[in-house]
Amino acid sequence: MPPTQSHSWGLHLTSLLPVNVIQAVMAFVGLAIYSRLMSPEAYGEYVLAMTAQLLGQFIVFGWLSAGIPRFTAQCEAEGTNSKLLTTAYALFGLLALVFILATIALFHAPFIPLGYRGLILATLASGILRSAALIGLEAHRSGLRITRYSLFETLQAVISVILGGYLVRRLGGRPEGIFIALGLVNLAIILLDYPWLSKVIKPGDFSRAMAKSLWQYGAPLMLSTLFCFALAYIDRFILAHLSDKEAVGMYGAAISLAERPMMMGFLWVASASSSLGFHTMEHGKEDDVSALMQRALGTLIVLTFPMAVGLTVLAVPISSVLLGAEFHEKVADLLGLVALSAILKGLVNHYLSQFFQLSMRTGLLSLIYAFALALSVAANLLLVPRFGAVGTLSSALIAYGLALLSMAAIARRWFPVRFPWLETLKVLVACSLMYQAVQGLEVTNTPVGLVSGVGFGVGVYALAVLALDIAQWRSRLFKPLFARGQRHA
Length: 489
Known about the structure:
It contains 17 helices and no strands.
């Protein structure tokens, strides 16, 4: 990958590791705090409100934030970054007005209970502030200003959870506190980033041509992202309609406990492969992109497969230690299926979809997501009345499984990435050894027991990785030592 030698895959991936680890840890901390401060019903309200907020952000701002990574490398090479960000923030102002007016209309709708209007206002404010901060964050990540990006995202991850827990408690266990905290933290990020933005954004640099380019690229991608979002989140509303808020709360807690940390792993790798991929496409050739994505796939398999196995074998102690007592048993029963569906979802949303974005074929991506969405809705309507949350997860496995097969078959036409069958088999063997070892340890449902179980599992997996030379880790670690010893001899 010639154009990115100074930002090699390993270096770029490593530079993004700290912020992703912090986000994963704080996801667990937040879940532990919120599940103890809120009832399952209140947590279900939080899940539905957060889902609605993300949906609104995708519909209104999705095409804009999607265009920033695509054009950052090109604009920085041409010295037109001011046009990109000035145009992006001007369009954001107009879109924010639309978002506010739509929410006001919803606020006064007769079917919205009075007790939920405070939650709607908090959700609206935090959604707008997060979208504003996200434009700058995407510009930093895509421009390979990783330190600045990581500092701001770390601030969001840590402070929002601490402040959110404090506000939830002060509000008597109401979820509004979480959204108020998110809004305040993202406002702080915008203010901290303002000195840099003020040097780049120039009112006279608004460009209609840039706005058109952002729309032409982002609109089809927004449509695919909307279908992607609906595929990921519509099951919560179906579950709420066919079951109750408590079931949504249990399902949401299981998703937060298992899927969110795994998605952090996928997002970590995707952040590196996406930014480097666009830079490589801008300066390199398709063979370089294929080599980059080949390494990304291998990294994902080595990283996420053992995470899924660990969540499955330690489901009971994880739920017992990290959740409130009302959540323990039901959530533990769901974690294995959640972990499996998270692998499929992560590969579809954060790996295979990148091929369609890099090749500018987002319209085809929309069709695949639309098909998977229709399949998911039909499966949910059929399975949820009988199996509840298990039916919801089964529907996800069906929809994402078929989407994965379709995307993989089509993407191979543009980028000849080979699936690493031998390495995957080695990883599965290592995961099996880890599962058997941890299961035989009889981990107790205490913090000490959970930490010992996780540490033991990681140790067994690491030894298996070295023994099987997965991803050539044994060769990388010991070859330099042998070479040094031969020189001294």
